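Submission checklist for the structure archive. All mandatory fields must be present; incomplete records are returned to the submitter.

[x] Identifier: Type II toxin-antitoxin system RelE/ParE family toxin
[x] Organism: Methanosarcina acetivorans
[x] Residue count: 92
[x] Sequence attached
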Amino acid sequence: MVRMPYDLFILPSCKKEIDKACKNNTLLKESLSKKIQEICESPFHYKPLRNELHGMRRVHILKSFVLIFNVDENKKSVTLVSFSHYDTAYSR
């Protein structure tokens, strides 16, 4: 297993969203897994968000889904905050 520069944490609500979305979709599950690894290797590569989601970043998964995450540079950690369909991702 490759050691990732940033530790990964997943909020329970995000874990639930991921499990529900990936339940019967292996392509989504594989794409998400690959993207999470990329995030942990280089989290500042992804787009920072503004307004209510200021301080967080996002990445699109298979064009239809959005993964929102937070980076703590001091702790060298990435926290997955939300995973949902694009239509509802920014309405939090």
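[x] Structure attached
Curator remark: The mean pLDDT is 90. The two ends are 35 Å apart (CA to CA).
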